[in-house]
Amino acid sequence: MRLAPGARRYAVPPLALAVPLLFVFAPAGLACAALGCFALWFHRDPEREVPESGVLAPADGRVSVLRTEDGRVRVGVFMNVTDVHVNRAPLAGVVASVDHRPGAHRPAFSKESERNERVRITTDSYELDLIAGAFARRIHPSVEPGDTVARGERVGHISFGSRVDILLPPEYDAADVRVDVGERVTAGETVLA
């Protein structure tokens, strides 16, 4: 199975520590092995079948935000610890900027998460916010300004839980949205609008 970049950074230390601990104190060795295997499983990056049209979900999880702000629609997807955390481009576009904003680490599903650490990927038609959660501490964008992205292409991942918001292009309004709050979506496959 394909893994998100950086998976080894989280998996190798506990797996390497598990080997000697198994001989010294087996329960601690098993705990380290389980932690390393969890890190590998968490960073899984399955292939997706991209539909022919529509704005795609940028993340796996549940729709937690659906609102209009300044005449544009924002859709947010909360990623639970069991969801795939690789994020995908909802539409094709050219990356204009990738900006990191430091901040808090509040639960990503709460209103307080508006002040959380985030990386905003701005393209010529939409904005994507990768938002760290209470447990997430690492946002890993994989695109840079000037990159051209295709619909469904990988644009980054967030290690250990969080939320991804998309500010839809101006031509979309609330009537175009095909999902509701609480609905499960799959990155690169579910059509949001």
Throw out a few tags for this protein:
193 residues, alpha+beta, Glucose Permease (Domain IIA), eight-stranded antiparallel sheet, three-stranded antiparallel sheet, 2 helices, 11 strands, 32% strand, elongated
Total individual domains = 2
Oligomer: single chain
User: In total, how many beta strands?
Assistant: 11
| Shape call | elongated
Task: Briefly say what this structure is.
With 193 residues, the chain is an alpha+beta fold. The protein has helices at 7-24, 26-42; strands spanning 61-69, 72-79, 86-88, 93-101, 118-123, 127-132, 138-141, 148-149, 154-159, 162-167, 184-185. The protein folds into two domains: 7-42, no CATH class; 61-185, Glucose Permease (Domain IIA).
Give structural notes.
With 193 residues, the protein is of the alpha+beta class. The protein has 2 domains: 7-42, no CATH class; 61-185, Glucose Permease (Domain IIA), CATH 2.70.70. It is 18% helix and 32% strand. It is built from 2 helices and 11 strands, in the order H-H-E-E-E-E-E-E-E-E-E-E-E. The protein has helices spanning 7-24, 26-42, and strands at residues 61-69, 72-79, 86-88, 93-101, 118-123, 127-132, 138-141, 148-149, 154-159, 162-167, 184-185. The strands form 2 sheets. An 8-stranded antiparallel sheet has the order 8-4-5-6-10-2-1-11, with no helix packed on it. A 3-stranded antiparallel sheet has the order 3-9-7, with no helix packed on it. A hairpin with a 3-residue loop joins strand 5 (118-123) and strand 6 (127-132). Helix 1 (7-24) runs antiparallel to helix 2. The longest helix is centred in the first third of the chain and has 18 residues, at 7-24. The protein is elongated. The two termini are 30 Å apart.
